Amino acid sequence: MDKNITSADELKTIRRIMEESTRFLSLSGLSGIFAGLFAIAGAMVAWFLILRHGSVRYDEFFRSLSEKQTLVLRWQLIIDAVMVLVLSMLLTLWLSKRKAKLAGKTLWTPVLRRLVVNMMIPLVSGGIFIIILLIQNHIQLIVPGMLIFYGLALVNAGKFTYGEIFYLGILEIITGLISSIFPAFGIYFWTFGFGFLHIVYGLFMYRKYEA
Amino acid sequence: MKDLISGLNKVFESRIRLGVMSVLMANESYDFNGLKDTLDVTDGNLASHLKALEEKKMIRVNKQFIGRKPNTSYSATKEGIRLFQQHLKALEDLIKTQ
What we know:
Chain A is an all-alpha fold and 211 residues long. Chain A contains eight helices and no strands.
């Protein structure tokens, strides 16, 4: 009888250790929510300040400007997008650190290393691809490119952290593909993909694992 | 009853060794610090258990340098995996007979 209890206990421990050593579980649902909010804030900055609101159809808007103006505009949009990315990443890092600390774990584990490497491959390729699009003036494909490559990164990440992130990745890829059919409405798709989807995912994960 | 217990392996009776093997079953290789964090044990304690597992040829040690820092990682041997699976099976069977 006693032996049975310890056996069950041991198996439970083994299962837990296997899970913990292969998946990065310090990722907080809150970071999804905040990343979504940052993305929406970034989209609003783009719409109201940079594109002087109402200019959702930025291809037409671009054509109405002089070359020099579009260059400035382009830089502003890049800085806006990079700010969203950096802020989201910093906050994700901070929230993960906090979650790890609360659980009495260290953040930098072999799993996290693997997670980062596997995410960086699509992200860096995507980043380079987007820079090329920018240089070659395929502005309308930038948002689809961001969504698709980010989605691929998340699909990869699904093997090393919560499995649910895989489905978020698939949704991002679908959003990216659809947005490439409607290139003029990039800002809507950006808001949906990086904003709305992140928030829904974050809320779902937070309620499921943390609340 | 004797048959049931015969699959249980004495080598895996310590919690830490069980933990080390669990990590190495799920991961191709894992470094010392990673093991230490996952299992929440002290350096010396972990080192002595790793040594024991290495002597029994359950795990393999790979020493390398990352930059200038020495880095020791461990992986399970084929025999180690086989015996650990047998051990798990025995544990499961024990529970089932209850």
